[in-house]
């Protein structure tokens, strides 16, 4: 299938920002946070600190997302605001390279700032999907974006892993110094590969006319009006609640899997290789899920992913050997990007295109409010039961509840 320059420019931003998702969110930050910045704390306490840091970033975005989206729609500044958040995220990410050992609070603060930049830019990136291609191609294009993200993030992560495993080849004194340098490299990668979106994707026209001084007031009024109207859009509201539940589980797996493996005392190298498996399997799998959504329906594609996630949680509770961690990584790689891609394109079909920024603000609000529950709950289960293994079981409820609510929406709503 051929795509024009707008589609490729849009999709390549996933290649750019997935470096943060892979190297920082899922990879090196959880490892360094536990072993370097929180070396004085137990594994359970370090996981709890990381869970609260993730929750803080998500709360900031959740509270601001609908207003940010409405402002972007009304002012016609989706791209400019996207780049503003992205630049802030890049700067915070680069600064992590200089945080000294034991300074867990400084590391957590920069992590929160970087994550806010990443999530805020993603909100506006998602909203541009409806403006780069016709509706019948959204499932495939959403899958293309996630596929490129997994490939790009995986390639950079592979390079950082090689540097961490063989630091002397790159002029580093040890693996920790190489891992810290990975944050600076990630910031640079994110910036360079954001250029295609900047150059190739046009800025959608603003919705309505508003003066400079009244922009915030009018945007706020639009958000309130939309909130009041949501109960009348039953399918949209039901999807948001279902998404809120199951994407919480997906996001918690992404953010906490490496920390979980470390708590079970698996070697760093095993955890790093497992994450690489997720990335490179996720590249073709996410693209394939986009086409699968067109063939069997996006809901069925999401159900497949949620069933596999539930099996992963059960297996994760009993895991003992490194090979099991690799097998679980393969299963996650097969469905992670697919669930994300089909969720985004499903939602895009339920909303008015001219208000995509605002409505994707609500989409991100639900996703980020979910992250207020998942990572802290993941950490609390381990602390309550005195065993990190119980953390995995907390996620099954989220996948099951989200899938049940999603089944209440007729498939015709997504056509």
TrEMBL record:
Highest taxon of source: Bacteria
Protein's organism: Microbulbifer aggregans
PROSITE patterns the record matches: MFS
Keyword Protein biosynthesis recorded: no
Gene Ontology molecular-function annotations: transmembrane transporter activity
InterPro entries hit by this protein: Atg22-like (IPR024671), ATG22/LtaA_families (IPR050495), MFS_dom (IPR020846), MFS_trans_sf (IPR036259)
UniProt keyword Transferase present: no
Chief location of this protein within or outside the cell: membrane
Location(s) in or outside the cell: Endomembrane system
Annotated keywords: Membrane, Transmembrane, Transmembrane helix, Transport
GO cellular component, one term: endomembrane system
A family per Pfam: ATG22
SUPFAM superfamilies from the UniProt entry: MFS general substrate transporter
Gene field: mdtG
Membrane topology: Multi-pass membrane protein
The protein's name: Multidrug resistance protein MdtG
Transmembrane parts of this sequence: 12-32, 52-72, 81-99, 105-125, 146-166, 178-201, 236-258, 270-292, 301-319, 325-342, 362-384, 390-409
Domain called Major facilitator superfamily (MFS) profile: residue spans: 1-414
